Amino acid sequence: MMNRPGSSARQWQTANADEHLSWYRSTGLDTIQMKSVCDSVIATFDMLAGRANRSLLASRLPDALRRCDDLDFSDIESGLAYFILHFADRYGRAGQVLQRLLKLGWVPLRRQRIAVLDIGSGPAPSSFAAFDFYNNLADWSSTVGDQHEFGRATIHPLDRGIAWDTIIHNFSEQLMVHRAPPIGWHALPFSRSFKNFTGFSAHERHHGHRRAIRDSIIRDYDDADEYIDPKEAWREAYSHPAQIPSAYDLIFVSNFLTTVGMANTFRRELVDLAHSLTLGGVLLFFTATGGRYAKVHREIEAIAALARLSRIEGFSEPIESNPDQRIRALLAEQVRTSVEHVRLYCNLSQSDWKTISESLSRDATDPTARFTLPMFRVFAYRRAGFASTP
Question: Contact, 131 vs 37, CB < 8 A?
């Protein structure tokens, strides 16, 4: 039975998080969804491999594992290599963090849609994790007979890599095949929503979208040899549903800030990003551990302070990625199967493949090796204000 201790979103979350997460695991939904993700990754690779240069695809595997920062993902080969090695793990990480936020009481909840912006995560694994998380929450609430309505996620990925549009599109199609999602779910993303973070402003994008609607309204009147006052055209434009929001409830910045230089380069955009949060909205920075990231972490803290965001406690230590052994077994099977498909598709000589495979971690190719995943860090912030009522 769902607890109803009070009207605030935080009270609702802290009272009901354990019950929701118990339902999520006891029904097997956690493994069902991860398996569908893994199966869809394999199917997407098999669908797109024919478009790739065989020798280049194989050589991209070590690059995607060791030198991601050096890749611009302008080619399908680097995109597929990264996708098969990292997507499912990153999807699981984002889900872990959202579950922790729920237990802490800080997940942004809305009655209508949840506007999600996903910065620099490539094929948008955090977007798909948020999509599943909010659908699961809404479905569970309905199942236990709660009277509240919970908005589902509307996703907006941002990344410069042109390879991601094709991969995201095909992955969403495969995921729909593997899941047959029910009517009522918001649409999966089928491409990047935005293609460059340089100069990015959520407010400007939103008002630019409204301006385009206004121009279309004026053209329609012109085509009909009728006149509309420009002020009335603006009013009509702003009465249309907004496909591009002016503010976001949840923002992921996923492994995007890898150097102090990047933090400095995008400082203005990052501060503006923080200002584009709704009241109670959450900004999540996913980063790596390791000594060289200490300076990056300090830059993140400085940017959050400049934007006057409140830090969410509970993320001070490194986090183990996908520690559930059932989930990790699915990830291991997907990565190894996908790498084997690369070997078979590229049809390299034994010596050439040996060179490639030795550049990978042993657990990516050897089923007898213990499958390991790196630790990661999260810096979580919120825009203080009134929390939404569930």
Answer: no
**Residues in contact with 57: Cβ distance below 8 Å, sequence separation at least 6, in sequence order:** 49, 77, 80, 81, 342, 345, 346
Helix (H, G, I), strand (E, B) or coil at 275: helix
Cα(43)–Cα(169) distance, integer angstroms: 13
Torsion of CA 147, 246, 171, 26, to 10 degrees: -30
Tokens representing residue 67 in the block? 């030198």
Residue 374 burial (10 A CB sphere; 0-12, 13-18, 19+): exposed
pLDDT at 385: 61
Amino acid letter, residue 152 = R
- In degrees and rounded to multiples of 5, residue 381 shows phi and psi of -140, 155
Query: pLDDT (tens digit, 9 = 90+) per residue, 7-26?
Result: 588 999 999 999 999 999 99
Tokens 């997407």: give the residue: 44
Decide if 228 contacts 235 (C-beta within 8 A): no
For the segment 132-138, the average pLDDT, to the nearest whole number, is 94
